[in-house]
Structure formats: structure tokens, C-alpha cells
# Entry
Amino acid sequence: MQDPILPLMMLIPLAGAILMFLRPRSARGNGGGFAFVISILPTVLGVILAARFDYSHGGQWQERFSCNWMPQFGVRFSLGIDAIGLWLTLLTVVLTPLCILDSFDKIRFRAPEFYGWMLLLYAAMIGVFTAHNVLLFYLFFEFTLIPTFFIVGIWGHSRRRQAAGKLFLYAFSGSVLLLTALIYLAWVHQRTFGSFSFSLAGLYQAGRSLPLWQQSLVFLGLLIGFAIKVPLFPVHTWMPLAVTESPTAGAVMIAGFKLGAYGLLRFAIPMLPLAALHATPWLAWLCVVSILFGGLVSWVQRDMKQLVAYSVVSHLGLCVLAILALTSSGLIGGVLVMLNSGILAAALLMVLGMIYRRYHTRDIQALSGLARRLPALGFFAVVFALGTAAVPGFNGFISEIISLVGTYVSGAPIHGGHLGPMYAIPAALGMILGALYMIYWVARIIFGPLEEPAVETAAPLLAAATVPPAPAVARDLSLREWCVLTPLAALVFVLGIYPLPLLTSMQPAVDGIRSQVLAAAASHPQKLLAAAPHPGVAGGRFHGSGLRLAPRSVKPKTFDLRPPSGIADR
Amino acid sequence: MTPIDFAPLIPAFPLAAAILAALLSGTKLKRAAHVPAISGVALSFFVALFLLLKCQWGQAIAGGAPYVQSTLWTWIAAGGFKVSAGIFLDPLAALFVTFVTGVSLLIFIYSAGYMEGDYGYWRFFAYMSIFVFFMTTLVLANNFLLVYLGWEGVGLASYLLIGYYYPRPSARDAATKAFITNRIGDTCFAVAVLMLYLTFHSLKFSTVFYGVLANPAFRAAHATALFWIPLLLMFGAFAKSAQFPLHVWLPDAMEGPTPVSALIHAATMVTAGVYLIARCLPLFLYDQPVLHLVGIIGCFTAFLAATIALRQFDMKRIWAYSTISQLGYMFMGLGVAAGASAVFHVFTHAFFKALLFLATGSVMHAMGGELDIRKMSGLGKKMPITTVCILTGCLALAGFPGFSGFFSKDDILSAAMNATWGLGPWLAVIGLLTALLTAYYTFRVFFRVFCGELRLPATAGQHEPSAFTLPGPQDGGGNRRGDAGTRGHGDTGKDEGKIAAAGYEPETVNQTPHTTIHKPEIASHYPHSLDGAPTMWLPLILLAIGATCAGYLGVFGGTEGGWIGGFLGRVPHMQPAVRYVVAPAGDMYLPAPWRVSPSVMMLIGAVVSLVGIGAAAYWHWFNRSAADTLAGAVRPVASFLENKWYIDELYRYGLVRPLRLLGHVLWRVDRWVVDGVVGVIGGIPRWLGFSIRSSESGRLRSYAFGMVTGAVLVLLVMWYWLR
# Structure
């Protein structure tokens, strides 16, 4: 059965991008309106998709489209979505048109080209979340890099070259490892089953058949590729720089879409469950470090975009931590962080872009009390900040609490997983840090006595051609800006108050992944013995409930790998 | 329909009112934002009253469970983590929600007069309604996560309201401080919620309190969790209820408009902590050390705050410290398992503290924003109604015999005195000492401000300057650095011209012409009463009646603890008997050194209160110079108290600065170490590729071309190799 919606969702922006590139220079206007209309069409298709989706079978791949592409390698052009893919695709089709709409007054320089790259990026993003073939996924995943590179490198701020270069260097080194690992797996498939395959099921099979040491090597390759993209703690430094130096739309595309975490959830962990489970404690510590480190560093930033970028590092630490917890609620929490943090980061970056448009500065200390001058902008800024600070009733809270619950109960016998309070409690401190950096930001920028940089001191950082002049007296939101921020604010509230459809539809999908991982690890010939009781495992597992005060005598432990039984976490 | 089906209306009305007030903002009706707000909270109050009176509590208890509950809808369901929105109603919740909405109603009515003509009138009422919405949600919730929603919600609402005059740096900083301090407690609460879920596999009150908890085997199996859960809940409650060491936000919270202070101190925010521990008392009763810690810290906080209040000069700040101190009493009561007494004190405190704040608001209104008790005197003649009301409030706070505070405070003290826990009597002794200080500092304010010769501050009769003046477009060109809102209270008179230039039109106060009173001698001939509009003094009178009479509900109408004790006694852990059967957990506690009957305690309490008032009368009414001499004689102590035991400084230099420093250090580490290492690794290929550097033209297009070509080449090679 071939469902044309998913390929259409990709082809429309692709065609639009080609048209933008072929556009004659003499054409009137800058192509923004056309790009926006094109970008809205996949949104309409997305609505149809959401209407047609069978939510009661959210774990199954639906809307399949598949045709032969490179049969020699077992590469099919195969698309499909389950509930996780559905929500991430919907996020893409909501955020990208808003990005394009938001760019109308910001991009004055080679604009058609810019919109061309945006549409291309759009198509690639949809591809990433809908690809059902691993090589196809990889191609889209990699392809997102090219438009991002140009958007940052051409339309960015003063250090755009450096940012684009670093972005490219990091992502490309990661992807080399990623590709090597994937090709190796395909080769293993050929060796074991007689034919090359890049199909999801094929590579799952291939990866799971490997002995532990090979799984670990392959997992390392995938992990580095995805961790750079996430980004996780030691390999995150490209991200704040790229987000800061990129124009708003590019920053949203970098910080708003969690490709790396999606890759870990969909590919790395289910393909190599044994290795993943072995690496879990170490990785989880990296996540905890990401959370706390990102939060603290975010708090001391003077550059507002950098502040948001580090807050994203912090949130993604929680996202990956929850995924690694491998409990039902943890996986749902992880996907929710992808969605909610995506919305909030995008919204905050757009607000910052609007402030920058008015004052030509991102310096926290140059601005104060904007609520007095720009009440509507201030309102949206406060809403998004509170969402990011995970106040209940806003969407950030739902993802945060579910992730924390998922991490906390992980390791308890009936919930499965291998993390526990030792990880969840430091992660919960992220809530304090989240309040710190967001509330300080609001206090500094939105509240307080009105301080605005004088016009003549607000020298554009770029050549005058690329940045539109700031208005003499900043005006509050225009109608177009209202149209950009209102849907995001609506999402913040709706997902905070009524997240249930999301949660219930994702339940079968995450349960599928979870039971596959646990079953595959359990049936693996190499029993999963924790070779050395390293601190992550020995301190991190809690039987029963709550914290132990007295240290228990350390003895060799086996992981509890039972697949979820009837009562397990359901 | 049973009465509980109406319970969801209690939070629903204020929420609807908030939305309506916000919708009115864009219309000409925005000056009428108080109408939906007041009607919303009034409707809530009537529903609450109806529930309180009509719920068949007796039947519910006869049916086995001392509560009724209903589930409305599922909020979250992820894995086994299922949380629904639902109502849990027992006498405790019913009593709380009734006085919360009742006192809020009076505060709302007062606000309509107090805030009239303010720049953000609709915003104020929208926030206030949200505040009541979250508070009623908190009280009526049937599970911990919903309580958490209300819990953070009141924090959010208080943040918005404390920062209501957001152009003022002081208001902004106070709001930030309140939010962050509360967030620390909230995080403890959140972790407790996680533990509760793992321990009980449910967050519902009915499951947690009335289920396996009674089973000793279960408690033994989960002893560790059952130690940490109450401890963390305690820290959560301490942040919200401003107990040491998390009390620092509350005195600063007076930066909001005065009705907000009244709402925070009396009805909504700070009582949440007491409610939480009263609600979770079963968990605490099974963990004695934590319960006792609650009592000890409560007692210490009561004393600490009372000493600080001795040397403060801002009226609102003094009342703020008195709130902290009174909350300390409540936690002391909870600490000796006298839940009903603690709730009784919350109940009476709501009346007299709302009264004191609102009456102070009237003073502030009349004095043009001035609240320094050193700058005013003898107001009694000018503001007769306000004075009578504030006197009632002071008598209640000081525990004067016959007023509400007397009965409720005494209830707690006698419970502590007769606790089976050995430290109980010592807490009671410190409590009595604190009561002495309370009576003294309360009447220090009263005698200073309302008695003696008439003296008005220069700002009297003026309208408080608006925080919201904005530099107009005429000075928006060259230098757009505004100066609006940098002035605090009382710093007026200098910028009149600028305010007028910005189109700010001060309104008339009390139907008097807008004249400026510069000199006290003119003020003494000022002909009008300064009591304010009827919407302002009517609620004061009602609250004064409450402050006088509320105490009798705890004396008459029941055997022990009066009507309130009897009513709350239907909740098992609120029964007076509980505090006698709670046995110490080991031998580390001393036996109770003495037993004192409640009537003797009352007598001691009355004497203590009278001594305190007498001392205040001597030093602050009849012989004010003696007070200054006294303060001069104990200069170090006085300055120690004036600086609030240097706790703010301790936080600033002990916690905030180091943490920020850590952030800076980590950031440098990030830029130089983490990034540097990766940069070195990334530099190796570049170094290797130095020879082909000529191909790096630096043009992005050629990079793109190279990338695409490379990708195509890789695919081609693969294809040939495998074909």
C-alpha cells in the first residue's frame, strides 16, 4: 500500500526550494511570501495526516510509502510514521512555516536563496522523522547539515564563519563515524543473513546478533554521531556558538529539532541493546552533567541567545536521561522533552530575534524593563520563560515531571530499566537551575526600569545591507509577529493542560521499543553481567523504593532484564 | 447531585473571572475588571460555604472513609504514572477553602477601592483571581501532583503580583527572590512526589493516607522512603510558608500592592505550607523525628521573626515578620501533632492579618505611600475607622484576652506544654517568650502611629507615584534611557513635572482636592477623614468582627477545641487524642517536666500579652525618648536585629555569589578546556591537510560543491564495489 502524503510533504518544499534557486534575479519581492505559502502546504498535509492516523495503534508504522531505490544495498525509499514520528513531524510542519514567517523582516540580503535553503532544510527534517530505512534516515540526517551550514555561514552574525565551520566540523566528524557504523551493520546483515539491508528491521536484527564487544564499538560510533547532534556535554560546544551566530530561523532549526535524541531513541538503543544497557550508567552521568552544567552556564550568560542555547543543552540532558531510563514513562518523557523543549526553545529564540530586530543587541545588560515599552512581547517572553522553567500548567512541566518520574522509578523491579534516584535527584536540581536562568533573564530584560540602548549606539554588527535598520522608538509586536508567537503560546498552554492525547498515542510506540530492547538484551547469548560494580551501577540501583541511607554491601549484580510483564509499568 | 459535584466550581469561578478580566483589558470596560473578579470569588465562597454546611460529613464517616472524593478527568498518563484531576473533600479541605475564599472576597472588595485608577487595573484582578484559583486547586486536589500544580501556581501568581510594579527594581528583585526561594522548596516537593509514586504506586490521597500506610509491615519495608518523604515535604512547606531558613522571600514580598500582601499573608500563599503538613500529618505521625523537626524549626522561626520585628520601621515589614512568627507557631502546633490547633490558628490568623495589612494599606493610601513608623504619629484622630480596625487586629495578634489570636495561640502553646514529647514544654516556654515580644512589637506600631501627638509625613494626602510612568516619545530620540519607576515608596515630589509631561494624571483621593500637604501644621488642620472609600473600610469592619469573634469558634460548640476542633476531629489525624497517643520514638527524649492545664496556660498567656502591651505603651506612647535611649544602650543587638540576623547577606555571599562564580568558572571551562580539547583533536586533520590548503578558497559555494561531489563519489564507489 502506498500512501502519498509523506513523500508529498517532502517533495513540496523540495520543489519550492528548487523554484527559489531558479528564480530570476529580476523577479519582484524577495520570495518570502511564496516560501511561506509553500511551507504551509505540508502543514495542511500534516493536519490530514493527524486526522488519518490510527491512534489506537500508535506503535505501528502507518502511512507507509516504499519503493526500490538501491536494491543492491537493500536501500529502499521507505517512509512511514509511528506515533513518535507523527508528533515530531507535526512539530516540524508547525515550526518551520513560523520560522519562515518570522524571517520576513530579518532577511534582506540574498533572501530568495535563504528561503530556498530553509525549504530544503524543511524537506530534510521531515525526511529524518519519517524515514523508515536506515540509510535514508542517514542521508536526511546528514543533509540537514548542508542548508544549516549555509544559513549560519551566509546570514549569520559577526562570527558566522567560525560558527559554520565549527558546526560543520563537529557534525561531519560525527557523521563519518555514524556512516561507518551503519555500513558495518549492513555488512553484518549480509554476512549473517546473506543480503545487504538497510531496513530498520534488518539492522535491528543484525545489531542484536553481534557479540558485546562489537556491539559496543558500533554503539560508540552511533553514539558519537548522535551525541554531537543532541548535543551532550563534552561535544556540545558547537551548538551555543551556532545558535548565537545564526539568524533566528537557523537557530530555531538547530535548537528546535532534536535529531540526535531521536536517533538515539529510534536507532542506536534498539539496534544495540546490550551495548546500550552497558553504557547506560556512564551515559546517564553525562546527561546529569549536561543538565547541571548547561543550567549553571546558562545562568551566567550575557548573550541572550547563548543563554537559550545552554538551556537547550540542559533540557536535552534530561531528554536523553529519560530515554536511557528505559521505562515506559521515561521514554514518553524523553519524546515529550523533544517536543516541548523544541517549542519553547523556538519560541524563545523568536522572541530574542524580535528584540534584536528592535535594538540590535543580544546583551542582557544593555536592555531592561522591556515590558513597559513592548507589553505584548513581554507577555510572550514571560509565558515562554515560565514554560521553560517548568511551571505546572505550561508544557515544560509535563515533559519534565514525566521524565523525572521515568528516571526515578527506573531500576525498581516492576518498572525495569537501570537508572534510579541517584540520577533523578540531581536531574531534579535542574528545575531550580531552570528557574534561576529563566527568571533572572525575565527579571533583567522584561521587568525593571526601562532601559534601551540609544539608536546611534546600536551599531549593526554586520554590513548594513544584511541587517534592517532599527526603528527610532521600538514598537510593540506587529500583526505578523503576533501570528508567529500566538500559535506557539497556544501550544505551550494546550500541551501543558491537556497532554493526554500525546501521551496515550505514544504509549504503544514506546512500549514496543522498550520491550524489544529488553527482550533482545535478555535473549542475547552473552548474559548481561555488570562486570565491575562501577559507581553508576552500584550507587544507582535501588531496590524497592526510596533512598538507602546505609551503603549495602557491594556484590556482583545482574541487570533485571525481564521484559515487562502484565503489571510492569502499564 | 451530591454536594461534592459542586466543588469543582470553587476553582472554576476565579479562573473564569481571571480570563474574563484579561479579555476586558482590550475594551472600554477594563476599568470594570473588578466586577468579574469579585463575583468570581464571591461565588466560590458561597459554594464553599454550602459545601461546609451541607456536606454529610457524619454519613461519610459512618460509611467508613472520612472524606469524599471525585475524579474529573485524566491529566497525565504515561506508563504507570497516571494522574487525574479530582476533588478530595474532608473537613480540613472544606474549612480551608471556605476561609480562603471568604477572606479573599473581602480583600478583593477592598482592592477595588485601593487600586482604583491604577495603570494595570485589569492585570491586577486577573492575577488575583489566578491566585485564588491556584490556592483553591491546591486545597481541593485529590492527589499530590495536582497539589503541586496549585503549589507552584500560587508561587507563580505571587511572583506576578509581587512584581506587579515591575518597573521598580525593588519589586522585580523581590519577585525574583520569591520565585527562586519557592522553587527550592518546590523541587523538594517534586522529589517527594517522585518518592511517593515509587512507594505507593499512586499519588492519590485516599491511597496514600488511608491505604497501606497503616500496615506496619509496609512501613518497615519502606522505612527509608517514609523518612525522606516527610522531610522533603517539610522543606517544601517551609519555603512556601516562609520558615527558617527559607523565610527570606516573605518580608520582601511587601513590594507588591498592599492587598496582595494581605492575600499572600492571610489567605492564600503562606497557609499552603501549613495545609500541606496538616494534610500529610499521617506520614509525619509515623516518622517522629521529622515531625519534631517541624516543631523545633517552627518554634525557632517564631522567635527569630519576632526579634527581627522588634527593630523594623516599615509597618508592612513588621507585619510580614509577624506573619513568619505566627506561622512558626502553626508549625510548632503541627510539630506536637496538634493539627486542629494549628489549623485553628491559621483560621484566626487569616482574619487579623488580612485586617492588619488592609488597614495598613489605608494608612499608606492616606500617607502617600509612606509607611515609616518614625515619620508619623497620632493618626487616630484622622482615621477613626481605620484606627479602631487596626486596634482590633493588633489586639488579636498580641493575644489580648478575648480576641481570636488569644485562643488559637493559647491552644498551640498548651498543646506543646502538654506534649508527651519531652522538648514540647520547652517549645512552649519559647513560644510564651515570643508571645511577649509579639505583644510588644505589635503595640509598638500601634502606639507610635495612632497615638500621641499628630505628625504626618510630607507626602500625606498625595497619591502614591505610579510605577508605570514611561518616558514619552518626545525624549525618545537621542537618549532613550528611561528613569521611570526607579523611585521607591515615599520618594516623591521631585518628578511631578515629568509625570505630568508623560500624560500621567493623578486622581483625586477621598473626594478631596489634590492639594499637597508639606507641613505638619497644615496637616493638623486638614479637615477630612482619611479613612478612604466605603469599599475600603467596609471590608475592614467585617474583618475586625472576624478577628474578634473567630476565636470563639474554637472555644464554644464542642468539647475539646470547640466547634473547629470537633469539626476537624472527624479527620482521624486531626483528633485531639492524636497528640496524646503519639509516643516518642526512643529514649533520647526527656520526660515532660511538668503538666499545665489549658486554663492555667490561658492565664499565663493573658499576663504575658498584657505585660508586652504595657511595655510598648511605656516606651512608645508615654515616653518615646526612653525607647531611643534603650536602643542606643544595646546598639550591637539592635543593629543585628535591624539587619535581620544578616541572613540575607549569608545567602548572598554564601550561596548566590559562589554559585554564580561556579557558573562563570564552568563557562570558562567550557570555552577553553572542553572546546579547546575538541579543537585540538579537530585541528589534526587540518594540519595534515595543510598541503592541500590551496583548494580552500574560503568560498562557501565551493565548499558546498565539494561536499556534494564527495557524497556522490562515496555512493558511486560503494555501488561499484558491491555490484
User: Anything to note?
Assistant: Residues 471-527, 583-592 of chain B have pLDDT under 50 and may be disordered. The radius of gyration of chain B is 29 Å. Strands of chain B lie at 68-78, 81-89.
